[in-house]
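call fold(seq) -> tokens
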Amino acid sequence: MSMRELSLKFPKSKSHFWQESPLARKTVLEHQKPQSLLQWVQQFLALHRGPGAIPVQAFTPNSMDLIWSNLGMHNEHDPIEVIKIWASLLRPQGVAVFSCWGPDTLKELRSMYANLGWPVPMHPLVDMHDWGDLLVQNGLSDPVMDMEYVSLTYDKVEVLLSDLRLLGRNLSPDRMGSLRSKTWANDLHHALEQERVKAGGRLKLSFEIVYGHAFKAKPKALVAKEVQVSLNDMKLQLKNKPLRK
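ret:
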């Protein structure tokens, strides 16, 4: 469901859009038709601002009923901090819904890099079950997780490399520490071309897609550290307590 469809289904709701990529932000906002002059001005400002239409610090704690993150968490250098922000922003019983890549993503590329003795092409990714633990440990409850595998195939190396440039970034501390040369780029192209020939003419990239949602729990009632009982009540309790045989 798109942001526009959500706005039509819940016309009294307020939606906020946060996206680091100017291209992705532009694509989403252009599909939202402004319903008033104010919305037109807000959309214009969002399209022409820098990264992030609204800084996350501007949002009020306990102000949101739904947080939706689509294929974004695997690109966060500190996902635990992001979950804590979600827990802070959500109202009690609000829900965070997200998807991201799992650890089997790009396993063919990882294997090729390892065989060539190159550093990893992508940072380690969080397993589906570990996501559930992270959600609970950082302020959310009742997580539900699922996953599926998606495979993309390519008959041209150039198209595969173009997709990789668009799909994400490498946050691994073990990645190559300097700019790579044209010679390395040619070596990469040659290695991928060899893999394509071995595979019968089409290169394959696997993606593990992890889906999850979790809720902001209701605040728990505080239990008093001390309980006061009168002497008369204690006598009555002892008097009415049946004797053990």
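The first strand starts at residue 64 and ends at 70.
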